[in-house]
Amino acid sequence: MAPPAGSVAAVARPAGCRRLWYALAAIALGTGIGVAAAVGYGVWLADRRIAEDTPIAASVGPSVLILGAGGDVVASRGGFVGRRLSGAELPQGLIDAVIAIEDRRFFDHSGVDIRAIVRAMVTDVSARAIRQGGSTITQQLAKLEYARNERSLARKIDELFLAWALERRYTKREILARYLNRVYLGAGVFGVDAGARRYFNTGPERLTLAQAAMLAGLIRSPSATAPTVNPEAAAVRAGQVLDAMVETGAITAAEADAARVAPAQLAAGADVPQGINYFADWAAEQALRAVGPEAGRGVVAQSTIDPELQRLAEHAVGTVLSKRGAAAKVGQAAMVVMAPDGAVKAMIGGVDYRASQFNRAAQARRQPGSAFKAFVYLAALEAGIGPATPMVDGPITIGTWSPENYEGKYLGTVTLETAFAQSLNSVAAQLGQRVGAERIVGIAQRLGVLSELRPTPSLALGTSEVTLLELLAAYGTIANHGVRVQPYGLVHVQTEDRLVHPLGPVRAEPLIDPAIDDELLRLMVAVVERGTGRAAKLDRPAAGKTGTTQDYHDAWFIGFTHDLVAGVWLGNDDSSATNKVSGGSLPTQIWHDFMAAAYATGRFGTVAEARPIVAPRSAPQVAYQPAPRPAANQPTVFDGIARGLGQVADGILSLFR
Length: 657
Hints:
- With 657 residues, this protein is an alpha+beta fold.
- The protein has helices spanning 8-52, 92-102, 114-127, 137-145, 153-169, 172-182, 192-200, 209-218, 222-225, 231-248, 253-261, 276-291, 307-328, 373-382, 416-421, 425-435, 437-446, 468-479, 514-530, 586-600, 637-654, and strands at 64-67, 73-77, 80-81, 189-190, 299-303, 332-338, 344-348, 390-393, 412-415, 490-495, 500-502, 543-548, 554-560, 565-571.
- Strand 1 (64-67) and strand 2 form a beta hairpin.
- The relative contact order is 0.09.
């Protein structure tokens, strides 16, 4: 039976309920105040961290972006960090693309999007897997710049406080700019400025809609969708970004369709030769050395490399070795192609960069064999021994050393020119004795050989080790009428603040008397016309020298036309012998095939326009001062008579070739 109205029990119950509700309300209010205070305190601490701490730098180390001769990006080294863009510098198309695919409520939330978090939780629970994340762009920035790199609840809470603090301190555009300046976009690229330049060779302000969509699409999974690694995945992801932009109203369906019809294309293209990596390593080292401490923010290097000539060089080497390499027992190759001023247009440092990054063109020191005879004969010419001077080709012994000719054959009395063309070892050894090993060392060093040379009698036959680049420097100088040439791979480099460090070719400096250089050039023309380098003969003038070491460990051909200087080395990393590969065989064939292909492009004029190797040239900028010659080596009346006899002997020998 219910208590009568107005009784104590009837009044007590409502009063007790009210007290309970008041208590609960007080607890809730206190909890709310406590939570708010805790959040406020956390945000305040986070704000102090942002104000006092330096953002965590991207761990990328020194970085270099390498441009080819035509201005396209051909390679990068290290993680490339682009220029820091301000919020005002961000192109609207890129902003729309990133917002559409990454954080559609970016301009509406306060750093943490509760709606997105709930939606992600529902999706993940339904799928019983992590399918969506609720992190905003602001949270991602907090994680990139300040948060600890660990997967824990504490780190997540720290990230929330930092996101709220960032929103209090910066505008939305500033937050977006800081994020897009830091975000990783694959291929060692950090930031949209670097991404625009690396992938499309353009500044972010000139990005097309298709390019902006592709960059925005890389943010979620940069390693898997980088267009340099997976162009198909990058294109699919860019299409998804365009769809998202249509959904958000940033673009129309017609604009998205137009972007799909003209999709983003890599500036360097997917067909950039992979072997260019050897050159990239070599050039990047030069770039970082040139700028020194300024390299910390990244370097843009304008290089000399020509992707088309690089491709032709790789094809020439690859074709010959794939057909004959195994039978010839040749496991490695190196090749360098230069312009007449020393600009390196192509470089092959090995047969497979993925298997070995050791650059055999720039780093490997190998015996040059008869390719070294250019220095011996130059010393002889400078000593007054002319091309027509007769020499006796026959067995000789110098101390305990008895050099032999190729296959043990001797030609008897020949001219100096014939001895060079036929690469006669006995004559080279005699010349070495006559002019002296020290003089030969001095000439080689003068022309660009930096490796240590041992002044022994066998030096005349190329027993001291050198690099391909060193030989190419010397031969380039000879081809350049005696004016100094040094291989170079960079024209200039720029640091982030756009300070230009000019590099380019070395200062023109005469190293060989032009008249003597012309004599040496005639000897090198004879090598190709009727000597050991006949396989290099083209439809236009060419010159060069073959090189084969004892027991066939190394085979070389260094040659040039009026337009290009190129050198080829073949051998094995363990210095094991090849199957009797001489410089006049596979190396010369590779050189010929490359040159023929290069001229077939039409880039160097027609045959009718071809210029001779030995032709009148303008006088060098500085008059050549010949070194004094030993009195014993001065030409006499008997030398003149000998030259005449040599010409007669050479004419008779030519009847039997």
